[in-house]
Every structure is written in structure tokens, then in C-alpha cells.
């Protein structure tokens, strides 16, 4: 199995890269987080997962071992394929997915396009114990997430704002607030900044 690739970056796109390793070009599917963390420099290193099926051998690449580990664990859940796992890791960070699973945060997992309530619950049920055992995460809190923040993000999504953009604005609002801030106040301030 190919576990990592290090070589010259030939082509870089939001969904894939081509890496030249000793004269062989590898087509590697990536997440948006990996895309944004890749340097534009010539040489890169990706941690990979090779998925072998009857009709294809597909490489998936990640900027961190932690992201690859989450990807592999997501593949073990019934109903979650490689594309769904990659979409989850493009929408949420690996640390956010781990935190959501450990805390039973169905709303965060369900916020990913293509993930329904049943799949979100199955992911949490199947992976909760495995996520707690993972050692490769630096600053994932095991406390419950800020529910006001999550509710505000869900409301902004319903209003048509992109989650990633909304999350950045809402994070700034919550950090700058002195003490607890209501869902309504978060939404009001976010609408002024979006």
C-alpha cells in the first residue's frame, strides 16, 4: 500500500494534485483543507490512502496523518464512501469532525452536504470510541461545543450563506464577546459582516 508520497508538484487543483515521484506522475484526490494547506513550492509531501476496487485503484492524499486517520475511520462506517468522507473533510476540519463525533454533535455532521440524520447518527455511534482513542490530535476539546454558535451557523446556512464564510465571522463575534452571547445577537452581528 502507498502510505505517503513526496515529490514535485506538477499540477494543483481544489480536488486533486499530480505529484511527480521519480518520473512517475501520481494523480491524488485531496480535500479542500489539504488544498489550502499545500504550498505552491516545488516539493510536497502527502500522507495517502490507496483504495483498491475491482475496476480502479484510487489514491487519496492528506496534509496530515490525523486527517488521513479520520478519512480511513469514516470509510469504515456503513453508508459512507470515499466521496462522502472527502466531502466531510472538505467541509469540516479533521479536529472538528473528531470533536463532533466525541460530543455527539449530530447537527455539525449533518451540516455536510449529502449527510442525513441517520448517517450522522450512524457515524457518531460507530466511531465515538475510536475517536476518543486517537492520539494524533493537538487541541480538540472534549467539552460540549458552543450551542449558540452552532444554532447561529445553522440559521445563517438556512439564509443561504456558505458555512465556511459564516464560521469565520461567527468565530470572531464569539471570541470578541465578553461572556455569553445569544443566538439572535450572533446572527445580527454576522449579517452586518457577511
Question: What does the model show?
Answer:
Belongs to the RuvA family. InterPro entries: DNA_helicase_Holl-junc_RuvA_I (IPR013849), Hlx-hairpin-Hlx_DNA-bd_motif (IPR003583), NA-bd_OB-fold (IPR012340), RuvA (IPR000085), RuvA_2-like (IPR010994), RuvA_C (IPR011114), RuvA_C_sf (IPR036267). Residues 72-91, 107-126 form the Helix-hairpin-helix DNA-binding motif class domain. GO terms for molecular function: ATP binding; four-way junction DNA binding; four-way junction helicase activity; hydrolase activity. One of its GO terms (cellular component) is Holliday junction helicase complex. The protein has nine helices and five strands; from the N terminus they run E-E-E-H-E-E-H-H-H-H-H-H-H-H. The protein is an alpha+beta fold and 194 residues long. The chain has three domains: 4-62, OB fold (Dihydrolipoamide Acetyltransferase, E2P); 65-140, DNA polymerase, domain 1 (Orthogonal Bundle); 147-192, Helicase, Ruva Protein, domain 3 (Orthogonal Bundle), CATH 1.10.8. The chain has a five-stranded mixed β-barrel with strand order 1-2-3-5-4. Strand 4 (43-52) and strand 5 (57-62) form a beta hairpin. The longest helix is centred in the middle third of the chain and has 17 residues, at 117-133.
Amino acid at each position: 500500500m502507498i502510505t505517503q508520497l513526496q515529490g514535485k508538484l506538477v499540477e494543483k487543483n481544489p480536488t486533486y494534485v499530480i505529484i511527480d515521484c521519480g518520473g512517475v506522475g501520481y494523480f491524488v484526490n485531496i480535500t479542500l483543507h489539504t488544498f489550502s494547506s499545500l504550498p505552491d513550492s516545488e516539493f510536497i509531501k502527502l500522507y495517502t490512502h490507496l483504495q483498491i476496487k475491482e475496476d480502479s485503484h484510487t489514491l487519496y492524499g492528506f496534509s496530515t496523518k490525523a486527517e488521513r486517520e479520520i478519512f480511513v475511520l469514516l470509510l469504515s462506517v456503513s453508508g459512507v464512501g470515499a466521496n462522502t468522507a472527502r466531502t466531510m473533510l472538505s467541509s469540516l476540519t479533521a479536529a472538528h469532525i473528531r470533536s463532533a463525533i466525541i460530543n455527539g454533535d449530530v447537527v455539525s455532521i449533518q451540516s455536510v452536504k449529502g449527510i442525513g440524520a441517520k448517517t450522522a447518527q450512524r457515524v457518531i455511534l460507530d466511531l465515538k470510541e475510536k475517536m476518543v482513542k486517537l492520539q494524533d490530535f493537538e487541541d480538540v476539546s472534549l467539552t460540549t461545543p458552543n450551542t449558540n454558535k452552532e444554532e447561529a451557523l445553522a440559521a445563517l446556512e438556512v439564509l443561504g450563506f456558505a458555512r465556511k464564510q459564516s464560521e469565520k465571522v461567527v468565530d470572531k463575534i464569539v471570541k470578541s464577546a465578553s461572556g455569553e452571547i445569544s443566538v439572535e445577537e450572533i446572527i445580527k452581528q454576522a449579517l452586518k459582516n457577511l
